[in-house]
Amino acid sequence: MPQLRQSISVPQGPDEVWQLLDDIPQVAQCMPGAELASFDGQELAGRLKVKLGPVSAAFEGTAQILDRDEGARRTQIKGQGVDRSGGSRAGVTVSYWVEADGDSSKVVIEADISLQGALAQFGRTSIIQDVSDRLTAEFAKCLEAKLAASSADEAAEVKASEVPAIYLAVDGAASLGRSVLLSVLRTLAGGLERLAVLLRRWSDRF
Length: 206
Description:
Largest sheet: 7 strands, antiparallel
Order of helices and strands: EHHEEEEEEHHH
Oligomer: single chain
Strand content: 35-45%
């Protein structure tokens, strides 16, 4: 399963950054494609849209805060979701923490991702890493804008922009194309074999 690690440099102090990251609704606004439906302080429910070239998925699911250490400025969250239209399933365990970096801060994010169903064919680490890089860049941009806001109302208006679809590299697309073609050919061969059996049965009656 893909395991990812990202870090973000933020030009504010660690306590200020942690205060924002500890506000789950605000964090959700900085996640491209995310829609938070509910949060009771421990469990959250929502939706996450992801695009990979021509393939898109809208995962509906829940997540739970497994651990929160205010002294270490660290949180661990486990989530799971399903794309009802495509049948894909995803699970992720995310840990993030804030470190002092001079007068600034560094946010470190580690994620362990699992994919099942149609999107599992995109599960190679290189593809997931590309998606993660782009989402993290937009997350950092949104996070900095919220921290730079002059009021709470202004910060609440800051949201992540949509990230363009991630297109596969040529070799990845070719591999996917061969996989789809082989699947079609196997289905066609099976259908022809069943048709031949039916024709033989029909001819034996005369």
